[in-house]
Write a structure and sequence with these properties.
The chain is mainly β and 610 residues long. 5% of the residues lie in helices and 41% in strands. Strands 2-1-26-25-24-23 form a six-stranded antiparallel β-sheet, with no helix packed on it. Strand 31 and strand 32 form a beta hairpin. The protein starts with 9 loop residues before the first strand and ends with a strand.
């Protein structure tokens, strides 16, 4: 994970401007339920596609035969119960039309629209557009074709079976009818110009099927970002409003804040690397904006990562993912309140591991332990597949044939030596290792990257992960999988994730409010403990970690479960949850000290307490 920039972005609420700092985060309460392989290829010419959510998750990609011939488009619908519809494969019907570049899902009708673009042969001024539609019970795509002078950049599937598209360098939304004969005709062309405020350089679009309304993001005069609403009505479309958003940098993705996937949105959420805004869906009024300095990142987003986000209507929070980490955000301010590293260092309580599905570390081919019997922790490994212990001489003689990248040259650790067909293999003593000759890309050193996150109607959180890299002396490979998590914490968040700078937090105890200095505030003993906010002064603490630098205040607080006073390093103590006793320790001495609260052990080779 990349380091956060230490910048304090401006937060604008109404006409006031304040500064907000990144809040401390807790562990995201998750249990990994399943990992489903959706599709992929090993021939080096295919690519993973995009994905979207209806009742299940639609995942796309393309595959090529050996030698990289004609593409085959593959599509799979994956359910949150860990099952998937049989993969749908279709050869491209039109020459040189790529994998769908954008998906426009409709959560009411379950229909998904997509488009792919290719140049028109011998006509550099026009492009050929293939519009495809599909739903979970489809046996094939329905494909429609049109030509235009501009490439589309976003598509939405409307309730009546029409589609809406916005095109590059456009200030309009086009609504199109898809005819049974495969033709595409325009129904209306809605200009995004509300009097003195035209929406220019449109970028993103999202459809609210319950309201039958489109929301389009772009720029307005003065360099600010803007949002427009188009009411589709009977199908022709009418501009309702164009409003400015108080941010000048960033291309936001759009999300709908709503009670369920089938109810009308109350707010439109705009999230980019540089700003987060909440806009009233009915009238376009601005509810909240936080911006980073020009060219910088929001303090609560990892530097270099474009947010891949989803709104959770059950818990009223936002999730973002990228690299191999999942984060939960306060809906009101966007700040991170909990996170989980689900791939490199997953909780020990999980019964399955995502690494088992990575072609680079697939345990069904290369188990982590030697021995003649079955492997109860890894049911994919067959009984008696690997057996026998080799001696040091045979190990050295056959090391070039060992299907592992990790070798112990002196072979002193005989427990990690296996024989298969008289070939010696050294097993990685840390449990995971690279399959022979598979090398991850430089962009993702572990061969895994989370591309999207979705929350299904049952409240489960689903992350689309792409494993990729190359095989020595062969071609590139990729595999797309969907990991489904169960949320094991409370689901009655109601949008209050406990951000200290939230306007709605006015329930501070009188004891805390009366303290007028930071030192007196932190010394105050109450059931919640007190926290010194740079903008509000002394307020009640909303978690153990907010009770700073005072052992008595920490241990006597009762409102946050069990708070304990932990050693972070020699001479440095912090208040935190008992569950974090090990992870909070940064030195061996601190690890040994915190062992009093929870069983901890220090790993000298990795310099971590666990």
């Amino acid at each position: 994970m990349l380091l956060h920039r230490l910048c304090l972005p401006a937060v604008i609420v109404g006409f006031s401007v304040i500064k907000s700092a990144a809040a401390a985060t807790s562990k995201l309460p998750l249990n990994l339920l399943s990992v489903v392989d959706a599709g992929g290829e090993t021939n080096g010419c295919g690519d993973p596609g995009t994905s979207a959510l209806v009742s299940s998750i639609i995942v796309t990609g393309d595959d090529t035969p050996v030698g990289c011939g004609d593409d085959t488009l593959w599509t799979r619908f994956v359910k949150s119960d860990g099952t998937a519809k049989e993969k749908l494969e279709e050869e491209e019907e039109y020459e040189d039309l790529p994998n769908p570049q954008q998906l426009g899902p409709n959560t009411m009708t379950e229909m998904v629209a997509s488009f792919g673009v290719a140049p028109v042969w011998r006509d550099e001024t026009r492009v050929k557009i293939a519009i495809r539609t599909i739903k979970p019970d489809s046996t094939k795509y329905k494909t429609y074709e049109q030509e235009d002078t501009k490439k589309p950049i976003a598509i939405s599937m409307l309730n009546n079976g029409n589609v809406a598209m916005i095109h590059e360098e456009s200030q309009k939304v086009g609504i199109y009818k898809l005819k049974d004969n495969g033709e595409v005709t325009m129904v209306s062309d809605v200009k995004l110009n509300d009097g003195d405020m035209p929406l220019k350089t449109v970028k993103k679009m999202i459809y609210d099927p319950a309201a039958n309304a489109l929301f389009i993001a772009g720029n307005v005069s003065g360099g600010k970002r803007g949002l427009a609403r188009v009411d589709v009505g009977n199908g022709d479309g009418k501009l309702a409003w164009v409003k400015s958003v108080n941010a000048k940098v960033g291309t936001p993705a759009l999300h709908l804040r709503r009670k369920s996937l089938k109810t009308e949105a109350t707010e439109v959420l705009l999230l980019s690397r540089s700003f987060y805004a909440r806009v009233d869906a009915s009238d376009g009024s601005e509810k909240f904006v936080e911006t980073a300095d020009d060219g910088e990142y929001l303090s609560w987003l990892p530097e270099g990562v474009t947010p891949r986000a989803a709104y959770d209507p059950i818990r009223d929070v936002i999730y973002t993912t990228g690299d191999t980490r999942l984060r939960e955000h306060n809906i009101k301010t966007g700040s991170v309140v909990a996170e989980e590293e689900f791939y490199l260092d997953p909780p020990s309580s999980w019964d399955i591991r995502i690494k088992d599905n990575n072609p680079m570390t697939d345990l069904s081919k290369y188990p982590p332990f030697c021995g003649p019997g079955p492997y109860p922790d890894h049911p994919k490994v067959k009984d008696n597949k690997w057996k026998g212990i080799d001696d040091e001489d045979d190990c050295q003689r056959n090391e070039n044939d060992c299907p592992y990248d990790t070798r112990n040259e002196d072979c002193s650790d005989s427990d990690n030596i296996c024989c298969v067909n008289n070939d010696c293999c050294i097993l990685d003593s840390w449990g995971f290792f690279n399959n022979w000759r598979r090398v991850p890309s430089n962009d993702f050193p572990d061969g895994a990257d989370a591309k999207a996150v979705y929350v299904t109607a049952d409240g489960r959180i689903n992350v689309v992960i792409v494993f990729s890299g190359y095989v020595l002396d062969e071609d590139d490979y990729y595999q797309t999988s969907v990991a489904t998590f169960e949320y094991t914490g409370s689901s009655d968040n109601n949008g209050d994730s406990g951000d200290d700078d939230d306007d709605d937090d006015d329930e501070d105890t009188n004891k805390c409010i009366d303290m007028k200095s930071k030192s007196k505030c932190r010394e105050m003993v109450t059931s919640t403990g007190c926290y010194w906010s740079r903008t509000k002064g002394c307020i009640k603490a909303n978690k153990c970690s907010k009770i700073k630098n005072n052992k008595s205040a920490c241990l006597k607080s009762t409102a946050h479960g069990e708070c304990v006073y932990l050693m972070k390093k020699e001479g440095k103590y912090v208040c935190n949850d008992r569950a974090k006793s090990c992870s909070i320790a940064k030195t061996k001495a601190a690890c040994q000290y915190n062992d009093e609260f929870k069983s901890c052990s220090w790993s000298s080779s990795k310099s971590v307490c666990k």
